[in-house]
Structures are given as C-alpha cells and as structure tokens.
Amino acid sequence: MPYIKGETILENINHHHPEIPVIVITGAMNVDTAVICMKNGAYDYMVKPVEKSRLIFGVRNAIEHRMVRRQMNVLEEKILRTPELTYPDIFASIITVSERMENIFRYIESIGPSPMPALILGESGTGKELISRAIHDASGRKGKFVVVNSAGIEGSLFADSLFGHRKGAFTGADVSRAGLIEEAAGGTLFLDEIGELDFHSQTSLLRLIQQKEYYQLGSDIPRMSNARIITATNADLSAKISKGEFRKDLFYRIKTHQIDLPPLRDRREDIPALVCHFVNEAKTVLNKDVSVIPDALYALLASYSFPGNIRELQALVFDAISCHGTGPLQINRFRDYLISQNAPMPLQADTDDVETFTLSFPDRFPQLKEIEEICIKRAFRKANGNQNTAAILLGISQSTLSRRLKILNPSAG
C-alpha cells in the first residue's frame, strides 16, 4: 500500500476502534506477516485471489463475532450493574420468587435484542416454552412466535413442516404450502425437543442457521429467513454428540446464548407461590370454593423431589381441587399421591406434619435444644441451604427461624 503499511493501519484501527473486527486481504503469501496481523488484532487473514464464498463466510463470521461481543458487554452491564428488571411485565406469566430465576430474567433481557440463536436446557416441565416466549417478547420483534415440537418428526416431514413445499414436490402435493419458518418471518421460531431431531434434519437446520437460507421441497431456489431460532431440550446434548447422535457444529451454533433452567427441587421456595397460583387457576376453571390453603401442605410438598417439575405440581393441584368440596383445602389427596410415588413421607402427629426420622439415645436423653438443632440442620440440608424453604419444612416463619438460629449460634449474629 502507498504511503502507509497495512500493519500500521491495522494497529491504528485496533487501538482506536477495538470493537470493529478487521479482515486483512493481501497478495503476499507470507506466514510471518499473517502471524503479525493476527497478533495485532486481525479477525481473519486472506490471501488473494479470494473466493467469493470464502469472503462472504469470513465477513458473516466477523459480524456475528462483533454481535456476540456486544451482547457480552450488555450482559455484564445488566447483571453486574443493574439488579432491577427493566421490563418485569415480560415475565409476569412465570411464577417465581427464586433469586436464580431472577438472574435468568436479567440474562433474557440482555440477550433479547440479539439475532443469534439461544438454547434452553432443562428437565421436562420446568417451563422452557415460557422462557422462550419471554426471550421473544424481550426481543421486540414484530413477527410471530412460532412453536415446533421436534420430537418424532423425521426427514422429509420435518423439512416439509419447517420449509414448506412447491406444488408437485411429492405425491399428494396438489398445492404449494409455506412452511413454519416463513410464518415466523421477522419473529421467532422455537424448536422444542431439539435433541430428538434425526441427523438429516439437523443438517437442514444447520444450513438455515449458518446461511440464513433454506429450500422448499421441490424447489432449487433458495429463500432467505430473518427469523430468530430458539431451541430447547431436556436431553444431554454432549452425551448425544459423544454417541454420534447429534452434530457438534450444530450444537455450537444453537448455543450462542444458553439458559440452564433449574428443576423445581432446586427452587423449592417457589412452591407456595406456585401452589397459590394453581389453586386460584383451578378454582376458576372448575368453579370450586377453597377458603384456606393449610401451611402443612407447603411443608408436605417441599419434601418431594417433583421429577415432573412444575407441570407435575400443576396436575397435582388440579386433581386435588377436582376432588375438593368446600372449606379449607384437604391435603389427603396430595399425601396419597406422594405415597403412590414412593416419596419420603412426613408423618402426621395430631394435626401437625413433622419430618420422618429416627432418634436413638444410647448414652443419655438429649435436651430439647439439641433436638431443635438437629431438626434445623436437617431442614437446611433438605432445603439446600435456603432459609425460606427450611422454615416451611419446620412449620415456622422465616423470622422465627432467624431468631432460633441466633439463639443456637449467638456468635454468628
């Protein structure tokens, strides 16, 4: 280059505008020069003549890299500096008081405007679709939120559902039909149970995400898509990759933004709020009158692991309300269900539910204070250290538990 070297321009750009990715294109096939350029901050290095596809691929990757860096900066600002949610209404349908869920909400607000794919991991029944819809709402996109359940959809059926077909593409294709990806134009396409896709369908999805283009069945003309892709699964994708059942390149494409939803057993403090919500919902749907929800119910449910998570709790509440007459909600239906699931059961002593365990006194009879300390420690273990949940298990308020803890351990107060 005349007057000034390319390396000098690169240094100046990287110093004054470090957020801009730089691609160096040169006619010099020199390894030392390439190494110097990469050390000075070049995103990519290409030697002339450069194929069109290679250049487009490099520019697209550079743009995506910049977007990811931008999102990381926004994420840092949102989570580390702004504890309050900017748009709490987006999450109104997700019932929680969990701090862990609040952190997820802040992350969703951060990645909402990003066009990059997002992956939601979590057990069945944890609310992955609600989270995906919250991401869509946080994006501000004007297009639709379109849901596709990938489980059981194979090969051409997946391609037909997602991409559509032209008239005459196959037997019975009497008219052309647009696919769901076209319906999601300008919006979000949510692919649930992504771990169940067969390998051929994974390849089609990878092309859609990488190239932003797809082919309708029976057509050789590519169509462009601007829909954002969100995927979800309860499967262990890393294990599937190891077994050769899931494409590694697709995995890294869909997980630009990743959300790990905790199971209900790791957010037991949400059980009272969820029970109240589902009871009110069931009362309205089933036209039932429930005057009181006993505190003993919360302690009973907090002792259960809920393998079906929130969906299982909702079904349990609706079943109990269906069998309910009038007055306070009876916990017998809940207790019978937990027994049928072989869950560890609290015993009933008079009218209070207490935790089941055996005490033996080989040397001396323990003092009441010692028994109290054992119960509190056991409750904290079962509640994974959460004081709200521990108080529910013990059948006392959180403030009462705090006072007991200060009495048991004055030096900590």
Structure description:
With 413 residues, the chain is an alpha/beta fold. It has 3 domains: 6-73, 3-Layer(aba) Sandwich (Rossmann fold), CATH 3.40.50.2300; 107-262, P-loop containing nucleotide triphosphate hydrolases (Rossmann fold), CATH 3.40.50.300; 268-412, Helicase, Ruva Protein, domain 3 (Orthogonal Bundle). Helices cover 47% and strands 11% of the residues. It is built from 17 helices and 13 strands. The strands form 5 sheets. Strands 4-7-10-3-11 form a 5-stranded parallel β-sheet.
Ends apart, CA distance between termini: 71 Å
Q: What's the structural domain tally? A: 3
Major β-sheet, in short? 5 strands, parallel
The computed structural class is: alpha/beta
| Quantity of strands, as a count | 13
